[in-house]
């Protein structure tokens, strides 16, 4: 008998390890920190486990984890007070209290429950740890006190909030909170280590709740995520995961970098994929680099922090403390000793000591020198009123630097600092508490198209190019092809509605658009993905309606794509107003550009003066830089050409036809045997031809050609170059021609500039600007993609020039 028992227990130890069987902790028993693999509760479905997790040297926290991804902690009892690795335990005491005892003695955490009857602790299938009494009532549950994660089925209420952890390795309470505010709105709040500094950064604080689609009138303060990836909140905020519909493991987490992200678990490679996020521009999170610093979007690592001139890091390597001055910055009695240092395209959000409307830069500077609290000036153009506003900053927080920001900063510094460049060295590094690449326990959306992707992509482009030949004006060619998507599994109607709510653009019915375009009568363009018609919507807006080729757009992928593109928002990108996905019909609705494309304008008489041409080059660069570098949902254009650069009534350029880059699986390409030199001839980078990896530098190349065309008025293929170096040079003719002129007889006298400048401008152009554009363009069209600048660098090169005439240091 005894032997049989021994054998049985041995069997159960080896074949059915005990820790996979317990989901309940009985009264009077405990889980010990010394047996972290054995003393665990496991949910009946085997998805979640609860036990001690090591969080540092001899430091343990009691946590709920996902079995399949042991590093993923979804709840913690004692995040701020880890227990010792010896004799510590979680005990369910006789009086009904669940307590965490450090070294078996000191109560660090407890549920503060009492019960006269017996109680038991149970880990439920949804990851909820619940303390039940004898009648099954819930005395306490972990879902009511979340840490930084909300699981499907868990409610966020007026009494609970998510608080980020310090970093991806330090789970103690960090600086960001996701909570219901007193006005019933769900918000993200930054609380700096300095108790005096805190601010809301989501939704955009300068917008009223109703402008962001929220309501303050629902006092219920409840939000939840369901397992199909749909989130709803009582303030009317809702969103759906990109992969919504499929039931998989999901979690909504307030990450240490202050962004709220929804993750899905990928069973195949056991990693987490982001399927929604609150903030798409990484530098918009408040406090991310601490005070006295700038945040810059960095393509490789997500974002970069740097100290302002004259400042140094306060608490290396933790950026949350930002930078401290290397000088006395209480400018109370030293007005004459300070000057201003210009920093282009930068912003400090909040903490305006004083604010002046419609004021000149000189007046603004005087105001600053007059105020001892003035540490910096924000000088910003107000697009609504067409004048400049001046903000005197008493605290330099939430600094960010972006080529797309229409405002500048002037830092106030002692002259001694300004005059000693050695002291103004700027230190740059990634903020330690975000480290997107290294510590990130997830995968962000694809960022480069290396091998593997490239063939599909190239072939796809070639296929379409060859089908449509010389492509004319194309609006957006969102060709989302998913022959393999099972339509019946597509997103249902109700989910669609939520997507609309989340993206703020409209869903149109086919009948509506048919009526708007008078039965698709007035064709205004024909492009890779379909034909574009002019239409008038029921609210009288004039729109460009693109009827996509029917062939192969799966509904779900189409909506995902539309959702992504609809969220891109930039002055130099064409705006999408809505879409239609009804039966086989796929339509996209855009703002209509009265003044046509750059191609039209270049072909036409003398409508484009130099200033406009330079502005177009600059605006186009900004739009592309935004696509490449600033939106997290990273987009390659892949078809930059004058036909895709539309102009508004002020000749402000708007890039159209982006969105191609996110194609997932192109089936048509399998059989393409077309010549490689098709595509949009003249604008394609050599990578396409030589079958090299496709990166954002292909757009840089095309941009370079467009700039040369804008300067010279000549089509890239319309020139007879004296040299011919074979196939690859076919589309380099314009480049060769420009280089020949530059190095020809006119080299010294700068006569070459006049030779290449579009004769339609006469002699009316800025010599220096033209030379700069040509110089930049020639860098863009380098054969070696590494030698080409990024779009962000191009914007900076062009802007630096504009500011060269102005001073950079003002006394
Ligand atoms: C986490 O951060 C807190 C506060 O900065 C610090 O006291 C604690 O030691 C850190 N814990 C670990 C495990 O590094
Ligand atoms: C269990 O708790 C509920 C609610 O607190 C209480 O009404 C009930 O009497 C308890 N049951 C027992 C057996 O104590
Ligand atoms: C999640 O919510 C959406 C929208 O209400 C609904 O269609 C879907 O069925 C829900 N999923 C689950 C698993 O309840
Ligand atoms: C896991 O698979 C997903 C989807 O197939 C992919 O996006 C992701 O990059 C993969 N992650 C890793 C680490 O390979
Ligand atoms: C300048 O300000 C600092 C701090 O606010 C103060 O300690 C100092 O006495 C002030 N100096 C003068 C001359 O007012
Ligand atoms: C801005 O100031 C200028 C000069 O003082 C004035 O002419 C102009 O009308 C002002 N603009 C607005 C919109 O108030
Ligand atoms: C598509 O879904 C339907 C209904 O769910 C199913 O009968 C069919 O087999 C599916 N087709 C494919 C290719 O998965
Ligand atoms: C040139 O411009 C005029 C008026 O702006 C317009 O009617 C004409 O169609 C344009 N020509 C071309 C070739 O775009
Ligand atoms: C651009 O469009 C506006 C409004 O339609 C028109 O007034 C203007 O003349 C156009 N500009 C050019 C250069 O065609
Ligand atoms: C892409 O298409 C191929 C068939 O051409 C298919 O086998 C493969 O599963 C598809 N991949 C994805 C990610 O849909
Ligand atoms: C390519 O096309 C040929 C004939 O058009 C056909 O026989 C072959 O099966 C196709 N290959 C693929 C992979 O579709």
Describe this structure in words.
The chain has 811 residues and is α+β, with helices and mostly antiparallel strands. The chain folds into 4 domains: 1-145, Bulb-type lectin domain (Agglutinin, subunit A), CATH 2.90.10; 284-441, Hepatocyte Growth Factor (3-Layer(bba) Sandwich), CATH 3.50.4.10; 504-592, Phosphorylase Kinase, domain 1, CATH 3.30.200.20; 597-811, Transferase(Phosphotransferase), domain 1. 21% of the residues lie in helices and 27% in strands. The chain contains 15 helices and 46 strands. Strands 31-33-32-35-29-46 form a 6-stranded antiparallel beta sheet. Strand 23 (260-266) and strand 24 form a beta hairpin. Helix 11 packs antiparallel against helix 14. It is globular. The termini are far apart. Mean pLDDT is 78; it is low at 4-20, 422-428, 430-504, 660-679, 721-730 and 804-811. The structure holds 2-acetamido-2-deoxy-beta-D-glucopyranose (NAG) (11 copies). One 2-acetamido-2-deoxy-beta-D-glucopyranose binds next to loops. Keywords: ATP-binding, Disulfide bond, EGF-like domain, Glycoprotein, Kinase, Membrane, Nucleotide-binding, Receptor, Serine/threonine-protein kinase, Signal, Transferase, Transmembrane, Transmembrane helix. Residues 518-810 form the Protein kinase domain. Residues 1-17 form the signal peptide. It is a single-pass type I membrane protein. It comes from Ziziphus jujuba.
């Amino acid at each position: 008998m005894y032997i049989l028992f021994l054998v049985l227990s041995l069997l159960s130890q080896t074949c059915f390890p005990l820790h996979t069987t317990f989901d309940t902790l009985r009264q009077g028993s405990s889980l010990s920190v010394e047996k972290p693999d054995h003393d665990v509760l496991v949910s009946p479905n085997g998805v979640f486990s609860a036990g001690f997790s090591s969080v540092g040297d001899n430091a343990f926290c009691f946590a709920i984890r996902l079995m399949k991804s042991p590093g993923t902690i979804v709840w913690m009892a004692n995040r701020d007070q880890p227990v010792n690795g010896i004799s510590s335990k979680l005990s369910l005491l006789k009086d009904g209290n669940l307590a965490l005892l450090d070294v078996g003695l000191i109560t660090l955490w407890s549920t503060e429950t009492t019960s006269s009857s017996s109680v038991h602790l149970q880990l439920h299938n949804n990851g909820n740890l619940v303390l039940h009494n004898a009648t099954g009532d819930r005395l306490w549950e972990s879902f009511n006190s979340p840490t930084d994660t909300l699981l499907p089925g868990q409610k966020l209420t007026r009494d609970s909030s998510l608080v980020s952890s310090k970093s991806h390795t330090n789970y103690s309470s960090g600086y960001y909170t996701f909570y219901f505010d007193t006005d019933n709105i769900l918000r993200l709040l930054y609380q700096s280590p300095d108790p005096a500094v805190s601010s809301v950064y989501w939704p955009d604080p300068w917008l009223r709740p109703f402008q962001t689609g929220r309501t303050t009138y629902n006092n219920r303060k409840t939000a939840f995520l369901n397992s199909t990836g749909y989130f709803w909140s009582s303030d009317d905020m809702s969103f759906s995961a990109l992969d919504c519909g499929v039931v998989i493991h999901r979690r909504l987490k307030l990450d240490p970098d202050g962004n709220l992200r929804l993750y899905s678990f990928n069973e195949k490679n056991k990693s987490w994929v982001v399927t929604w996020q609150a903030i798409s521009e990484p530098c918009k999170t408040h406090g991310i680099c601490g005070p006295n610093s700038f945040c810059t979007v960095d393509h490789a690592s997500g974002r970069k922090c740097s100290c302002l001139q004259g400042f140094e890091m306060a608490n290396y390597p933790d950026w949350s403390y930002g930078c401290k001055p290397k000088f006395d910055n209480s400018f109370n009695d030293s007005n004459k000793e300070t000057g201003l240092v210009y920093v282009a395209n930068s912003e400090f959000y909040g903490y305006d000591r004083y604010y002046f409307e419609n004021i000149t830069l000189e007046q603004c500077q005087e105001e600053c020198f007059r105020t001892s609290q003035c540490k910096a000036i924000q000088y910003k153009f107000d697009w609504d009123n067409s004048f400049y506003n001046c903000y005197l900053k008493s605290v330099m927080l939430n600094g960010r630097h972006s080529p797309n920001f229409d405002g500048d900063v002037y830092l106030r510094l002692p002259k001694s600092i300004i005059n000693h460049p050695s002291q103004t060295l700027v230190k740059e590094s990634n903020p330690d508490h975000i480290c997107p690449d290294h510590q990130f326990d997830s995968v962000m959306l694809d960022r480069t198209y290396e091998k593997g992707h490239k063939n599909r992509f190239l072939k796809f482009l070639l296929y379409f190019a060859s089908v449509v030949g010389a492509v004319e004006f194309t609006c957006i060619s969102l060709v989302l092809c998913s022959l393999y998507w099972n339509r019946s599994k597509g997103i249902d109607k109700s989910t669609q509605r939520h997507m609309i709510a989340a993206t703020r653009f409209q869903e149109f019915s086919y009948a509506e658009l048919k009526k708007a375009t008078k039965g698709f009568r007035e064709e205004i363009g024909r492009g890779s993905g379909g034909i574009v018609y002019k239409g008038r919507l029921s609210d009288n807006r004039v729109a460009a309606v693109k009827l996509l080729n029917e062939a192969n757009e799966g509904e779900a992928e189409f909506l995902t794509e539309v959702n992504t593109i609809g969220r891109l928002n930039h002055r130099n990108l064409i705006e999408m107003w809505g879409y239609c996905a009804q039966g086989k019909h796929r339509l996209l609705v855009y703002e209509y550009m009265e003044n046509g494309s750059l191609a039209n304008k270049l072909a036409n008489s003398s409508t484009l003066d130099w200033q406009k041409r330079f502005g177009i080059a600059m605006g186009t660069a900004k739009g592309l830089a935004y696509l490449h570098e600033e939106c997290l949902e990273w987009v390659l254009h892949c078809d930059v050409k004058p036909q895709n650069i539309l102009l508004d009534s002020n000749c402000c350029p708007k890039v159209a036809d982006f969105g191609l880059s996110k194609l997932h699986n192109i089936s048509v390409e399998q059989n393409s045997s077309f010549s490689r030199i098709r595509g949009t001839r003249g604008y394609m980078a050599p990578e396409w031809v030589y079958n090299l990896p496709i990166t954002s530098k292909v757009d840089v190349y095309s941009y370079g050609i467009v700039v040369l065309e804008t300067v010279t008025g000549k089509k890239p293929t319309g020139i007879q170059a004296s040299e011919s170096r074979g196939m690859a040079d076919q589309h380099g003719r314009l480049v060769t021609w420009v280089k020949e002129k530059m190095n020809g007889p006119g080299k010294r006298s700068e006569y070459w500039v006049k030779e290449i400048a579009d004769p339609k401008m006469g002699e009316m152009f800025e010599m220096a600007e033209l030379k700069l554009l040509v110089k930049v363009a020639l860098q863009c069209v380098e054969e070696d993609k590494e030698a080409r600048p990024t779009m962000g660098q191009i914007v900076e090169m062009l802007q630096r020039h504009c500011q060269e005439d102005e001073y950079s240091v003002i006394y």
